[in-house]
Amino acid sequence: MLLIWSTGAIPWVGGTGLGDMATVEARRRTRYAGRPVKLASALLVFLATTGFLAGLTIPEMYLYADRFRVSIMALADRDGFQAVDLKTHDGLTLRNWYRPAAPGKPVIVYFPDRMGDFARKPAHLFQLADQGYGLLLASYRGYGGNPGRPGEADFYRDARSLLDLAQDSALAPDGYVIYGYSMGTGIASYAAAAFHPLGVILEAPFTSFADVVRYQAAPLPIWRVSSQFDTRSRMGLIDAPILILAGELDSVTPAFFAKQLAALNEGLATVHVFPGANHLNIIRHGAGVTVAGFLAKMERGAATLASTAATAIIP
């Protein structure tokens, strides 16, 4: 931000003697003595009211700025979906959406982007649901009509509660695949490290939110970034196959983030970088087919495990 300060010429107030000149100089000093303090105070007020004071809330202001764009009722009239209300640790009720899977098919647990778009962006998942895959679409606290305020730590606790609910209520009897997009990859990686999904899909991921801020706004002191969404630290803890999708032209979460993450779990992670794709259209550039193929492998893997278990039980 460029600030240009302009000071006008000091008017002459008459007289030619030294006494008059001294009077003018004294008036000038009196007139401008308090200006630095006033300017500093005005600047601090501006910074505080716009969220720039100390730099603590800048990233979160951007991260959660569009959280009201998608209503939690966006799927209320969509055939096949039913509401799943999650009771949180602090007494909130969060609306999520669920579509059961056909027998033998896994459920895709989806954590959306910073806009919380579980209704439009994952259109390819609705197509997969028509093929029998189940969907459990997470909606965040403080988003689109859900109560509460958004925050990383609470997102994690809500994700754990949602997966606990899915297991306790048998919403995914044939297993589930955890899927995160953009900001949601930070939550998905946390959930994948804490639970045991059949597989994990990370679309347009980043290593950590601090790394994104460093890439997008280098002058901002990183120690002022309170949200981390540190997928880097969790990659080695995930014990399921991981599909990582990146766009060659993604300027929000560049493909080098995806490559760095894949290198942290080489035995289980596969990264695909799609030519010509940006942050928003990776699926349209071929990733949709890749996701379908990955899910088919998860489905076959689950069937193999079930068959092995049955063989071990039946004499």
Provide structural commentary.
The protein has 315 residues and is an alpha/beta fold. The chain folds into 2 domains: 18-50, no CATH class; 71-313, Rossmann fold (3-Layer(aba) Sandwich). Helix content is 37%, strand content 14%. The chain has 9 helices and 8 strands. The chain has an 8-stranded mixed beta sheet with strand order 1-2-4-3-5-6-7-8, sandwiched between helices. Helix 5 packs across helix 6. It is globular, with a radius of gyration of 27 Å. The termini are far apart.
In short:
This protein is α/β, with parallel strands linked by helices and 315 residues long.
What layout of secondary structure does this protein have?
Elements: H1 18-33, H2 35-49, H3 58-63, E1 82-87, E2 93-99, E3 107-111, H4 123-130, E4 134-137, H5 152-168, E5 176-181, H6 183-194, E6 199-203, H7 209-216, E7 242-247, H8 255-263, E8 269-274, H9 287-313
Helix pairs in contact: 5-6
List keywords for this structure.
315 residues, 9 helices, alpha/beta, disordered C terminus, Rossmann fold, globular, 2 domains
Count of discrete structural domains? 2
Task: Write down the overall geometry.
Answer: globular
Biggest sheet overview: 8 strands, mixed
CATH superfamily of the largest domain: Alpha/Beta hydrolase fold, catalytic domain
